[in-house]
Amino acid sequence: MATAIVLLKTDRRKVTDTAERILEIPSVSEVYSISGRHDLMVIIKCETVDMIEYVITDALLKVEGVLDSETMFAFRSYEKREAGRAVDVD
Amino acid sequence: MATAIVLLKTDRRKVTDTAERILEIPSVSEVYSISGRHDLMVIIKCETVDMIEYVITDALLKVEGVLDSETMFAFRSYEKREAGRAVDVD
Amino acid sequence: MATAIVLLKTDRRKVTDTAERILEIPSVSEVYSISGRHDLMVIIKCETVDMIEYVITDALLKVEGVLDSETMFAFRSYEKREAGRAVDVD
Amino acid sequence: MATAIVLLKTDRRKVTDTAERILEIPSVSEVYSISGRHDLMVIIKCETVDMIEYVITDALLKVEGVLDSETMFAFRSYEKREAGRAVDVD
Amino acid sequence: MATAIVLLKTDRRKVTDTAERILEIPSVSEVYSISGRHDLMVIIKCETVDMIEYVITDALLKVEGVLDSETMFAFRSYEKREAGRAVDVD
Amino acid sequence: MATAIVLLKTDRRKVTDTAERILEIPSVSEVYSISGRHDLMVIIKCETVDMIEYVITDALLKVEGVLDSETMFAFRSYEKREAGRAVDVD
Amino acid sequence: MATAIVLLKTDRRKVTDTAERILEIPSVSEVYSISGRHDLMVIIKCETVDMIEYVITDALLKVEGVLDSETMFAFRSYEKREAGRAVDVD
Amino acid sequence: MATAIVLLKTDRRKVTDTAERILEIPSVSEVYSISGRHDLMVIIKCETVDMIEYVITDALLKVEGVLDSETMFAFRSYEKREAGRAVDVD
Amino acid sequence: MATAIVLLKTDRRKVTDTAERILEIPSVSEVYSISGRHDLMVIIKCETVDMIEYVITDALLKVEGVLDSETMFAFRSYEKREAGRAVDVD
Amino acid sequence: MATAIVLLKTDRRKVTDTAERILEIPSVSEVYSISGRHDLMVIIKCETVDMIEYVITDALLKVEGVLDSETMFAFRSYEKREAGRAVDVD
Questions:
Q1: ipTM of model
Q2: What residues of J are in the I interface, CB distance below 8 Å?
Q3: Structural domain harbouring I42
């Protein structure tokens, strides 16, 4: 499982609309309206890095209302899967 | 449920150790080793904002190996919990 | 009570008008014309974080004259008004 | 009444202690633990600009735990508390 | 006496014209064409902070040719009034 | 007459002392304690550019308490005090 | 052999098209879609520095979809040409 | 094949030594001494993202002489070397 | 002899044309196409600072194709060409 | 002839000494004490790019007093000294 985190600056009059359109993109697992210089933070999870690239380039960045982006790639995920703090992630 | 995202710069010789220590903090749901100027991205989820503040100030920032931090607060979470397509997001 | 602080860059010919329109938004408690790279600083206080998000996204950022924003969230407020040590502020 | 807003980067292991020491400085009306690159935001209100300068230079910046600062001066305050239009804030 | 220093980015084809128009604003005591990322530096001196705010917001930022601004407020002036190096300023 | 403007970051515990030592340097005409990321702004006026360089390099930057500096050179001064157009400033 | 690395910000709706057009420029050896604030990273290898300049200025920067660029020049290449880890590069 | 690009700031007295030590790390395919704010640019190619993370965190960042890093991940590589369209590069 | 160095961002489709037009300005001694965030670096040498200001403001910044500028002033030139120690440069 | 321009931040108490030591490095053609965030600007001219790299890495950055550097490479020099169009510069 590959994960990317995208910080977005959106048209200031369309933050909510843009968030909702992004949420409909498959592979987008979470959308947050955040503090700071950006408006939204999007978490994308895909089976492969190629799919991540496709989702960002061909879907996310083409959503109306998106003005600028800064992308972070998760080289490794240390997610704690609840319960007995099972390690061994993705 | 309140969510904060913390970007951390760590001692470059202790990235993995620092990540593992952070993962043991209750309320820390995910730790990623990320691309960019920071080394780690930590997602914290708590019942209240007060608890978020406590986790960041009294636990996260005191972990050995942490050098600098930039915090984002999620004013709103658009997690995809609805309908059929519902993906199991913590 | 949740608090957010928003730094705004406004249309340089409409700083005063923009400030006055922002002041009419309920939940906006203070508007300052400030030094630095931004023109205005707005303090928003609401009962819940959800309301803060609504006020920023659906009211503040849609005010005519607002060009860019940077938001800070107050995880904790140490306001002096409480208890015995209360000092007479403003 | 003159107002200054100071953003502080503090020793990451002493955020709470530093905030509490700052809160004891007369003229400091509010201290927030905030999101972003800084740790604390301090609001100072004095009768004169001279006093503001004295409070920042001779008290605030000398508090143990303060590492770096960025100061904003409020040229004008549009606080809602006055006159008829008064809205019930905090 | 209150002092503010404003760094301005101007339309690159109108630096001189913009400087001359700014110079006609009462309370503007000096205008410099400077090195760095900005084009002009303006020093404003007024009896009160309120007047400073008015001069910046209602006169300076409305001058044609001004594109962007960064303002600094002088909390204290240590001006040396020549002669016997008399201290005791404003 | 050549003019340079120097923004200084000083040891946060010695802002006033540093300002006073700087004020004693001949050719330093004004020292301000300012808002923003810097602590002091110094205006230097000399007969020649060579003297400006000497004052900055051999006097100003060697004052105890100075930590970092950013220098601006005034290519041209539009000061109002001269000639006929003289407006009554400060 | 001279090498330059160019980071590009492209029209967010045309990242893939722009990458493909750039790939057709002779001397462009690699194009990556990258994380961070830029969208693409381009590696150019030419016999001479003059040719590098020509490729960047007359071909790369004129490709439709390119919005902004930041260029790095490789003063020295330590490429490892596989095999017996042969050093001695170009 | 996964690719990461790492920009490094090194101890200014050990740029060459640091570059040579980095070149000995398996999976490091190229090391450049570059213009700009960084000293070295390192290209890492591995079979999997996990290995990339391991190489950066457990080898590269632990090399003596490395002071700071900024990492970019290549979501997609458009390298020309393959198949038919192959153009004669370097 | 006064010297100024100007870094220019130009219209990315007109770098060469812009450079050639700038080269025709008297007092411009060198124009370089450079790496980094800017496109051109221009060195201006004049008898007086006033002339430098005139060349930048009335000639250089008005050249078509120039989009943004950052100027550095040389307070002192340590050029090797003089006296005995003269080394054979360029 | 290859040209590099290096901006240096030096120990603020040793600007002149550092400049003079740098001036003694062969291939360094000019050293300027400059305005802005840096203290010195050094121009290096060599027959080859390899020599440039050697001068920067093995001589310039090892000079005592140098704290930080930012390097620009001149891909092309439009110096006026050549051929017919020669204008009388400095």
A1: 0.91
A2: 1, 3, 5, 19-20, 23, 26, 28-36, 41, 45, 70, 72-80, 87, 89-90
A3: 2-74
